[in-house]
Amino acid sequence: MDNFFSKAPDIKPLKSQFDALKDDYERIFIEAAESIRAEVNKFKPENPCANCPVKDCKIEKKDVFTPYPPNCEYRDWQIKILSFLAGDYRQKLKNIHKNILDKKANYTCNNCASCCKLSTSELSYAQLKQRALRGDKFSKDFVSVFVPYETDEEAKKANPEYFELLSNVMGDVKVYYYYCPKLKGNLCSDYENRPDICKDFPHNPLKLLPSSCAFNAWKDEVAHQALLLKAKVDIIEYYKDKLQ
Ligand code: SF4
Ligand code: SF4
Questions:
Q1: 125 and 169: one domain?
Q2: Domain presence at residue 1
């Protein structure tokens, strides 16, 4: 099977990766909204007003987000939609998520060590340690290997291009930079005991990766699918909020 090793790595500048994701998301969001609208319209009752027991109903626009009285058939429609989105549809999205992650197995880390040299979090080291103490698995893994850079300048030296992009993308949001002291040269000195965050990296295909990361090829392969999934999850949350 043709895999990553048989091709030269396709390295794109980070800024263009980010701009492409942003532009695609707007287009894909509309695609996702239309697809969900088509699904929920399958449950829409056909002209139930003819036999409606509700007197003096003044509702003209029978839209999915219109507020309906409790004994209205359109309200039943909204309840069916909520149940569909929380059941079959959510399962369908879970399967897509699994499929996206499964495709990562076709790519292999090239040991560039960028992810060990420069990792970021919106949480400070103290906040991460607090979360770890409260049992948060990700935070536990994170503080078991990463320590903070003393200064942003030091972090920048680890990967100037990646540092610049992350600082630009995060804007005014404070970002904390970390590194792993277990890295020796470009190799992990405690490979057998590395935590799941290292084994699973990158776990999100929408995450901005360093240019040198071999999993950029995976990101490219699943980008459309992952953006569509994110858009659908965001839209479902909106439906839940509006229809409950
Ligand atoms: S434990 Fe090993 S793989 Fe994980 S961040 Fe440190 S050096 Fe990298
Ligand atoms: S940045 Fe990507 S390719 Fe480089 S060591 Fe980390 S996972 Fe491997």
A1: yes
A2: no
- Please tell me the residue having the least CA distance from ligand 1 atom 8: 116
Q: Where are the beta strands (DSSP E) in 64-211?
A: 119-121, 147-148, 176-179, 183-184, 187-188
Q: Is the CB of 210 under 6 A from ligand 2?
A: yes
Q: Are 84 and 32 within one domain?
A: yes
pTM, whole model, 2 decimals? 0.79
Q: What pLDDT sits at residue 17? A: 61
Ligand 1 centroid from CA 204, angstroms? 18
Measured in Å, residue 168 CA sits from the centre of ligand 2 at 22
How much is the pLDDT for 48?
A: 86
Strands (E), the chain: 119-121, 147-148, 176-179, 183-184, 187-188
Question: How far is the C-alpha of 210 from the C-alpha of 226, rounded, in Å?
Answer: 19
pLDDT by residue (tens digit) across 74-117? 999 999 999 999 999 999 999 999 999 999 999 999 999 999 99
- Considering only CA atoms, give the Rg of the chain: 23
What's the gap in Å between 215 CA and the centre of ligand 2? 7
For a mutational test of ligand 2's pocket, the pick from 14, 106, 114, i.e. the residue with the most ligand atoms closer than 8 A to its C-beta, is 114
pLDDT band at 12 (very low <50, low <70, confident <90, very high): very low
Q: Looking at the CA of residue 109, tell me the nearest atom of ligand 2.
A: 8
Domain that holds residue 176: 109-213
Protein residue with its CA nearest to atom 5 in ligand 1:
116
pLDDT digits (tens, 9 = 90+) for 52-66: 887 778 888 888 999
Number of domains in the chain: 2
